[in-house]
């Protein structure tokens, strides 16, 4: 009986050591797998950061290009407005000059007409007297 107890104790002890060994082995495998997964997660985080920075940089570039286009368009419109304003001012000055010339001609012809009428009137008065 003692022998069977010793055998059972021995077997139980072997079983416990095997179970403990197996648990330690599984634990070490789980630790390695956990470390591997942590490494993969860090790698994915780095890749995600890189992609986010790349997209952000692309958006910034697009925004800056659009700003540049808008600035160029505004400068073009400004130049065109300035050109049209100066053209309009030149045309207004030309019209004023023509109006002054026409006014001068009207005054000249009015004076000429009045002088002619006065001369005819004086001639008639002289003839009648």
UniProtKB/TrEMBL annotation:
Transmembrane residue ranges: 106-128
Region: Disordered, residue numbers: 1-26
Record bears the keyword Nucleus: no
Subcellular location: Membrane; Mitochondrion
Compositionally biased tracts (Polar residues): 1-22
Keyword Amino-acid biosynthesis: no
Domain of life: Eukaryota
GO cellular component: membrane; mitochondrion
Keywords tagged on the record: Coiled coil, Membrane, Mitochondrion, Transmembrane, Transmembrane helix
Primary location: membrane
Record's protein name: Protein FMP32, mitochondrial-like isoform X2
Organism of derivation: Phoenix dactylifera (Date palm)
Gene name for this UniProt entry: LOC103697552
């Amino acid at each position: 009986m003692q022998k069977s107890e010793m055998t059972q104790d021995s077997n139980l002890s072997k079983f416990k050591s095997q179970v403990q060994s197996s648990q330690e082995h599984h634990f070490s495998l789980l630790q390695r797998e956990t470390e591997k997964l942590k490494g993969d997660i860090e790698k994915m985080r780095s890749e995600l950061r890189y992609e986010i920075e790349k997209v952000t940089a692309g958006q910034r570039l697009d925004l800056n290009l659009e700003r540049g286009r808008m600035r160029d368009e505004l400068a073009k419109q400004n130049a065109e407005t300035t050109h049209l304003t100066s053209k309009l001012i030149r045309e207004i000055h030309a019209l004023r000059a023509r109006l002054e010339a026409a006014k001068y001609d009207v005054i000249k012809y009015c004076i000429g007409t009045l002088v002619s009428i006065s001369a005819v009137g004086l001639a008639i008065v002289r003839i009648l007297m």
